[in-house]
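Internal tracking record. Fields below are filled automatically when a chain is submitted to the structure queue. Please do not edit lines marked as system-generated. If the sequence contains nonstandard residues, flag them in the REMARKS field before resubmitting.
Queue: standard
Priority: normal
Entity type: single polypeptide chain
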Amino acid sequence: MMNSHTSIALLATPGIFYFDRVKIRANHADIDLHNIARARKNEATIRFHREFKCNFDLLQPGEGELRALELATRLSRVEVAYVEFALDVLWAEQKDADWLKRELERSIVIKHLGADTRVYIGEADETTRYFGKLLGQKKLVIYSDRPLRNVGQEYISRFPFRTHIEFRVRGAPQLTSLGIRTIRDLLNFDHERLFRDLVHVPCLPSKKKDLGALVRKHSQRSVEVSDRMLTNAANQWLQEAAMESLNAKANTDSQWLKRIKRVDLLEWLTWKCDAQVRSRNRL
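SYSTEM-GENERATED OUTPUT FOLLOWS
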């Protein structure tokens, strides 16, 4: 981890990984947080817990804050209870940030969330999309209408807009399954692996005959058109089927997700962002 974030070299436009928020429990309520600028003690006490007595939050902590917190809690037992893993894709124009958000809404598939996954809109902010169960322990959040805050300031003059992709995980058992138990685990965490392993995007077949077979099978109609029209028709079906599957509608076609090829989110972002940047440069 470098400062508060790690840059992604593989994208055609800048991208950064970081922790947006971390919540930690401790068995002592008198931990000194004065030297940790982004740490705040949560005054709500933990009721009915035999061991943990207080909560505290860290907003976009970097390596320095995490090491200082590890030192401050060296005599205490702590537990990481909640983490927001963030990935920001940075853009020079707002319309590109909005474009990528729309593409993600139509295409994204989250591993291990099950058949009752939902896509829903936040009550307070209608521009934010949530993927997951309403009260679930894992949730993906996407938005594109908020500026950078503490992280990525070296990019802000050239790339002031962002598509924000955030994977939220609540509960010590869920975080343990990702390899996070202690503050030291946060320091050594591999953000790239998380997004590669858990967030996937289905991809269309590359051959024309396979595209035609896919469209004919699921639309019950013959498609004998140009390569471009055929690809557009298949893309439309893919987006509709993906949303139906994510919304768990009662239809037999949702089984297609188990058979069609998927790529991980970072691979998909690599060629999507590259294509978008090249198309902008041609204008």
